[in-house]
Structures are given as structure tokens and as C-alpha cells.
Design brief:
By secondary structure, the protein is an alpha/beta fold. The chain has two domains: 109 residues, Roll (Urease, subunit C, domain 1); 298 residues, Metal-dependent hydrolases (TIM Barrel, Alpha-Beta Barrel), CATH 3.20.20. The chain is built from 15 helices and 17 strands. The strands form three sheets. Strands 1, 2, 3, 4, 5, 14, 15, 16 and 17 form a nine-stranded mixed β-sheet that branches. Strands 6-7-8-9 form a four-stranded parallel β-sheet. Strands 10-11-12-13 form a four-stranded parallel β-sheet. Helix 3 crosses helix 15 and helix 5 packs parallel to helix 6. The chain binds zinc ion. Zinc ion binds next to loops.
């Protein structure tokens, strides 16, 4: 397959004009000027895209909960803990495994239509129906975090083991992550136990890629206090990262979502250990939690990816919108428009996102890399004229400008059509099921 564009954006600083990408067996085998790539390819290649398109690496949503599309718009404008404990968790207790998969199917569809090729998601798990089965069925790439909680330590640890055995490394697209939910829902002993298990299974199943630890970190400024109250342990120097580091869980394969309330010591430890942060500007604003100081994290040398968080706290999975928010959010408070420039944000959404998920061969358009690509239609009023493609991708593009989404060299979405999802059926089922659950949760 040849993927063609007026611009082929290889990475945050290289653009090939009138370029093309040659894809074979799910890998990028050549990238360069269109004529050259066509010559190299020889005959018999399908061409996706044309001279009005832009080709870029697939967008990585480095923190979300795709099954939660079912809860989109169900409870808004509430304080985080009240939102979780009084609204989200009671609803989730009524959900069946088939709902995990159904919500995830809709989440995949929404993601693909906005140029997302890879998600790091986290949810409850069932062997037969889960986010992993939805990803497997649809051809999308994803790292599926298996949520681990103190209130069901045996059950959730068992889920993790089962998920690794069944799904880790499947089709080269699916990976499992260990996901202790947050410092305040997982006791110190369970952090240690889950980490021992993660390392053991990474050793055994590492051929399928790293098994990262994906969790929530410093979303709430009261985390040190909650840990103290709930588990009766001290958080040294008021540093939630130092506390977790003492449990042996801060390392290169640690991905913490949010990273809002971090002090100097927290940042210093994260940087020293090579840990990663997923920045979720839209959800953070919606829940009024503050937001990550991304310029400071990046300056400290921490890899920062971008995420939407779940569709119950965003309320979409729109990573194009997220790029714009990520670029804007730090400028006013710092009174400096130079922070988080477009190229940096583009890099966070692609290359850094892939790095957050432990991929070495993803996130840029380069020979030998996995062919996760997005084709954008540039023939639009709001994308005219073009001086700087990075500026357009971050500040002017809308997710509806995505023309095609390709994962592992396979077209999953093109010109409004899905190739692996019966979207009308999925939306019908979601409408019906969400109303049933809504009645049930209100009645109970
Ligand atoms: Zn989250």
C-alpha cells in the first residue's frame, strides 16, 4: 500500500512535500517523495490519499477508559470523589462484561474516526468480554490496563494474570498493563504484590512487548492525606512519588496519568527513574483538579504523553481537541505563549505517546517502523492556507478532518466508513443498554 499526501509529516521536525509512505506487511518500508516511492514500489499497490492530504503518524491516546463511553454525559460538574463514589462506581457495579466490550467498541470507533491508532486504556476485566476483546476484534492497537483495587485484591490480581496469558502480544497489537488504580485505592501491600506479579509475567511473556505499569498519579492534591487515612502509613516528605518509589514501583515502565500535584521531589524522582506521565488537560479542567505543569516535566527530562481520560470525564475521546488544549493550558498561567509550542505537543501526541507505552518502533514515520498512520483531509476552509503543518495539526485541525486511519498497515477507517465495525449496530446497542443501566441505577 502507498499512502500519499501533499505533506508527509515524519516526526516533529521533518516533513516530506508531495510525499508517500510505502507499507508492506504492516511495516513502513520506504518514505520519501511520491515519485520515488512509486518507482521503488513497482506495480500493484493500492494508493490511499492524494495531493490534498496530509499523512502523519497515528495519534496515541496514552490514558483513557474506552469502555466508559456508556457513561458519557451521565454525571457531570461534580467533585472528583463524589463523582466517583456516588455516581460512577454505583453505575459500574451494574455493568456486565458484555457492557465492557460494547462500550469499548464504541470507544474504538470514536478513536479511529479522530486519528487515534493506539490507546492505553484501563477498566474492569472479564476473560470473555473486555476492552481487550474489543481491540482484538476491531484491529486497533492498544495497551489494556487491568484495574487492580484493594476491595477485590484476589479477583483483580487473578484478572491480570488471566489477561496476560490470553491477550498479551496478540497479533502484535494487544498488550496488557498492570493497573493498580491509584495510590488511594490500592494499599501498600497490594502495590508490592502486583509489582512482583508484573515483573514475573513480564519475564515470562516479554516476547509480546513490555508489560507496563499504568496507573493514576497525583490527580487529587489530597492523595498523601488519603493514603495516610485509609492505610495508616506515612507519606514521606509529603511526596506521593517518594512513597511509591519506596514500594519499588517507580521505574521506566511506570506510566502515571495526570501528574498534576507534583512537588520538586516528586519530579526529581520521576525523572531519575525514567518514569512517564500522561497529561489529560480536558478531563483535568472538567473535574477542576488543576493540570500538569508540562513545561516543567519536559524540562526535567520526563517523557509526557497526551490522553483524554475516560469519556465520562471529558466527555469525548477526541485527541485532536486534546492537542489544542495541551498547547493552550499552560500559556495563560505562565503568561508565556512560548511554552508547549505546536511541535512539542505534536511530539507528545505521537512519538512520546508511543514511548509512554513502551514502543520502540512506533510514533514516527520511519523505515522499519510499524505502519500506524493517519491521513488528514486538508481541503478545508479552516485549514487554508498552509504555512506550517504543525500549527494546523495542533491549532486548526478538527478530528472530523481525519480521512483515513491505518493500523499495522490495515485501513480501519476511510472516508467515513469503518472496515471492521458495524457502527450503526454498535450505536443502537449502546443507546439501548445505557438506558437500561440508567433506569436500574436510579431505581436502586
Ligand atoms: Zn483515568
Amino acid at each position: 500500500m502507498i499512502v500519499r499526501g501533499r505533506w508527509v509529516v515524519k516526526n516533529y521536525r521533518e516533513v516530506v512535500e508531495d510525499g508517500a509512505v510505502l507499507v508492506e506487511d504492516g511495516r513502513i518500508v520506504a518514505v520519501g517523495p511520491y515519485e520515488e516511492v512509486v518507482r521503488e514500489a513497482g506495480r500493484g499497490h493500492d494508493v490511499v490519499g492524494d495531493r490534498n492530504k496530509l499523512v502523519m503518524p497515528g495519534i496515541v491516546n496514552s490514558h483513557t477508559h474506552i469502555s466508559m463511553t456508556l457513561l458519557r454525559g451521565y454525571a457531570d460538574d461534580l467533585l472528583l470523589q463524589e463523582w466517583l463514589e456516588k455516581h460512577i462506581w454505583p453505575y459500574e457495579r451494574l455493568m456486565k462484561p458484555s457492557d465492557y466490550e460494547l462500550g469499548a467498541l464504541l470507544g474504538v470507533a470514536e478513536s479511529l474516526a479522530s486519528g487515534v491508532t493506539n490507546v492505553c486504556t484501563m477498566y474492569h476485566y472479564h476473560p470473555e468480554r473486555s476492552e481487550a476483546t474489543a481491540l482484538l476484534k476491531t484491529g486497533m492497537r492498544g495497551t489494556v490496563g487491568i484495574a487492580i483495587f484493594s476491595w477485590d485484591r484476589e479477583g483483580t490480581l487473578k484478572n491480570f494474570v488471566d489477561a496476560v496469558r490470553r491477550f498479551h502480544g496478540r497479533e502484535g497489537r494487544i498488550r496488557i498493563a498492570s493497573s493498580p488504580h491509584a495510590p488511594y485505592t490500592v494499599d501498600p501491600e497490594l502495590w508490592r504484590e502486583s509489582e512482583t506479579l508484573r515483573r514475573e509475567y513480564e519475564e515470562r511473556y516479554g516476547d509480546g512487548g513490555p508489560i507496563i505499569l499504568a496507573t493514576h498519579l497525583a490527580e487529587d492534591w489530597r492523595e498523601p492525606e488519603m493514603v495516610r487515612e485509609r492505610f495508616g502509613v506515612e507519606v514521606p516528605d509529603g511526596s506521593i512519588v517518594k512513597y511509591l518509589d519506596g514500594l519499588g514501583v517507580i521505574h521506566e515502565e511506570f506510566l502515571g496519568a495526570h501528574g498534576i500535584h507534583l512537588n520538586d521531589l516528586d519530579i526529581e524522582i520521576l525523572a531519575r527513574r525514567g518514569a512517564k506521565i500522561a497529561h489529560n488537560p480536558v478531563a483535568n479542567m472538567k473535574l477542576g483538579m488543576g493540570y500538569a505543569d508540562t513545561p516543567r516535566l519536559l524540562e526535567a527530562g520526563i517523557t509526557v504523553g497526551l490522553g483524554t481520560d475516560g469519556p465520562a470525564s471529558n466527555n469525548t475521546l477526541d485527541m485532536v481537541e486534546t492537542m489544542k488544549f495541551a498547547a493552550l493550558i499552560n500559556k495563560p498561567l505562565k503568561r508565556d505563549p512560548r511554552v508547549t509550542p505546536a511541535r512539542t505537543v505534536f511530539r507528545m501526541a505521537t512519538e512520546y505517546g508511543a514511548k509512554c507505552l513502551g514502543y520502540e518502533d512506533l510514533g514516527v514515520i520511519e523505515e522499519g517502523y510499524r505502519a500506524d498512520l493517519v491521513v488528514v483531509d486538508m481541503d478545508r476552509p479552516h485549514l487554508t492556507p498552509v504555512y506550517d503543518v504543525y500549527s494546523h495539526i495542533v491549532y486548526a485541525m478538527r478530528s472530523s478532518d481525519v480521512y483515513a486511519t491505518i493500523v499495522d498497515g490495515r485501513i480501519l477507517y476511510e472516508d467515513g466508513e469503518y472496515t471492521t465495525i458495524d457502527i450503526d449496530d454498535v450505536m443502537d446497542r449502546v443507546r439501548k443498554r445505557s438506558m437500561e443501566l440508567y433506569e436500574e441505577v436510579r431505581g436502586g
